[in-house]
From TrEMBL:
Keywords: Glycosyltransferase, Signal, Transferase. It comes from Pseudoalteromonas caenipelagi. InterPro entries: Glyco_trans_9, LPS_LOS_Heptosyltrfase. This is Glycosyltransferase family 9 protein. CDD domains: GT9_LPS_heptosyltransferase. Residues 1-24 form the signal peptide. It comes from the Bacteria.
Length: 348
């Protein structure tokens, strides 16, 4: 850019994993422009995780309010005009929200990643990238305004009280904790409960304490119950017992996390906890746990080739595969082998 921005607005509403990726870019921006004011338009749930992020003012966009959410957004910015808007989401809901944010420059995704009329709501674009991870796409927004982005780092907003709550929930568990966060947003992306249980038993035999984490939804509660019934070892069930910040502290205390394509996998990355990611429907090179890509167990590429007859490099980046039983193709033996590998490499 030809000027140093003094007021910056970030637009990324959801989801948990994506806002975790965006934090790294935002904090890189803060390092380059420490005097710039930063406002982040964000979803209601995501704001619960990032509340009190240093140097950032949050404006919550509650999608459940429908049309009223856009009116609230306009009122929030009445009389303001940002130097730049970093429009980091192509969903139509976010595009309509961008209309309510006054800014001189509105930077959006390159044409290859634009959809749902995204191009109509921006006047500049980030540079195209070859097969980027979602996090790398957000870094390119920062680069567009003159920020140098190297290996991402995070300073997540948790307090000693949050950590104490996590400590209380974990109780007398010893330091080697294996955390299973088994549920994705869609049931078809979840691994089988008996196989999660087999990993729990294997970890327990290696001297790990095992915990299960998750939110208070029927799907997550049922899945956790099924895992515990199949397991021979003792498992501490924290499903529905943690707020997002407390969950982040639980993941911080863990030595290793096992998860499918779900937000807590990316939360764990932000606090430096290794993650074994289980992927079948989406390309882990695009959406996997960023710092732990080598620890992914996936059947995505074989299913992509079977369904599309082409490789990921021959198709538009980010193409997903379909099927309700794809996760069953990931075997217990594959994940145990990865578990043993990670324990050895990370010296857990």
């Amino acid at each position: 850019m030809s000027f140093s921005p003094r007021s910056i607005c970030i637009l990324r509403l959801s989801a948990i994993g994506d806002v975790c990726h965006a934090v790294a870019a935002v904090q890189a921006i803060q390092a380059t422009y420490p005097d710039a004011s930063i406002t982040w338009v964000i979803g209601k749930v995501e704001a619960m995780l990032l509340a009190d992020l240093p140097g950032v003012k949050f404006v919550v966009f509650d999608k459940k309010q429908g049309k009223a959410a856009y009116k609230t957004l306009k009122q929030a910015f009445r009389g303001q005009r940002f130097d730049v808007l970093l429009h980091m989401q192509v969903a139509l809901r976010a595009n309509l929200a961008a209309r309510c944010i006054p800014a001189k420059v509105k930077i959006g995704f390159d044409k290859g990643r634009s959809k749902e009329l995204h191009s109509l709501f921006v006047n500049r674009r980030i540079e195209p990238q070859s097969e980027p991870h979602v996090l790398e796409g957000f870094q390119n927004f920062a680069r567009t305004i003159g920020v140098t982005c190297d290996k991402p780092t995070w300073n997540m907003p948790v307090t000693e009280q949050d950590r104490q709550q996590a400590h209380t929930l974990l109780g007398s568990l010893h330091e080697r904790i294996f955390a299973i966060s088994p549920a994705a947003s869609k049931a078809e992306r979840n691994w089988l409960p008996e196989r999660y249980a087999a990993l729990a038993d294997h970890a327990a035999k290696q001297g790990f304490s095992v915990v299960i984490t998750g939110g208070p939804t029927p799907l997550e509660e049922t899945l956790a119950g099924d895992i515990i019934r199949h397991a021979q070892c003792e498992i501490k069930n924290l499903v529905g017992k943690t707020q997002l910040k407390t969950l982040l502290c639980v993941l911080e205390r863990a030595s290793l996390v096992l998860a499918p394509d779900t937000g807590p996998a990316h939360m764990a990355v932000t606090v430096g906890t290794p993650v074994i990611g289980l992927y079948a429907h989406s390309n882990p090179a695009r959406t996997g746990p960023y710092l732990y890509q080598d620890y992914v167990v996936e059947v995505y590429h074989q299913n992509l080739l079977e369904q599309k007859g082409k490789t990921a490099q021959q198709l538009p980046w980010g193409v997903r595969v379909k099927g309700s039983d794809l996760m069953a193709q990931i075997t217990t033996e594959q994940v145990i082998d990865m578990f043993n590998h990670v324990v050895e490499v990370e010296k857990l």
